[in-house]
Automatic annotation (TrEMBL):
Species for this entry: Microbacterium galbinum
UniProt xrefs under InterPro entries: Split_barrel_FMN-bd (IPR012349), Stress-Dev_Protein (IPR052917), YdaG_split_barrel_FMN-bd (IPR038725)
Domain (General stress protein FMN-binding split barrel) ranges: 7-150
Domain of life: Bacteria
Pfam families: Pyrid_ox_like
The protein's name: Pyridoxamine 5'-phosphate oxidase family protein
Length: 162
């Protein structure tokens, strides 16, 4: 592990994720997860998503702003808890726009249906297997042979409120 604070470690891990599962509570009170593309690699406590303003997840988040975001790769996982809000900021939409987004919004960034969803994290928990896929496989095999627990990093982090 590098010499970073837990908050910096969360930000460092989030740089490696492209997709997230965004979890809301629907009208019946059930937890529902929605796949979204993370639009910004620099984590400062917020994550931004371009969404359809009429999407179910937006309606759910407007009814109950408390949401969760989870991200995973082959050797690390992050779970974030926080709030979500639909933000009206056409300049930010254009800043985050990419050719990939055009697959969902063919009318471009000025399409009135394009929404900007801001997730503000309050806490995070992460699990990491330092060293990548090979090191993870080695640690798994080692734990099976020796009977010692799998070596990994896990921490719960309260994020500073702005």
């Amino acid at each position: 592990m590098t010499d970073t604070t837990p908050v910096q470690r969360v930000a460092e891990l989030l740089k490696d994720f492209r997709f997230a599962m965004f979890t809301t509570r629907n009208a019946e009170g059930r937890l529902v997860s929605h796949p979204l593309t993370v639009q910004e690699a620099e984590f400062d406590g917020d994550l931004w998503f371009l969404v359809s303003k009429s999407a179910t997840l937006v309606l759910d988040a407007q009814a109950d702003e408390r949401v969760g975001v989870s991200l995973s790769s082959n050797d690390s996982w992050v779970s974030l808890s926080g709030t979500a809000e639909l933000v009206d900021d056409p300049a930010k939409v254009r800043e985050l726009w990419s050719p990939t987004v055009e697959a969902w919004f063919t009318n471009g960034p000025d399409d009135p249906e394009v929404g900007l969803l801001k997730f503000t994290a309050e806490s995070a928990e992460y699990w990491d297997s330092p060293g990548g896929k090979i090191a993870s496989l080695f640690s798994f095999v080692k734990s099976k042979i020796t009977g010692e627990p799998y070596e990994g990093e896990n921490e719960t982090v309260e994020l500073p409120q702005r």
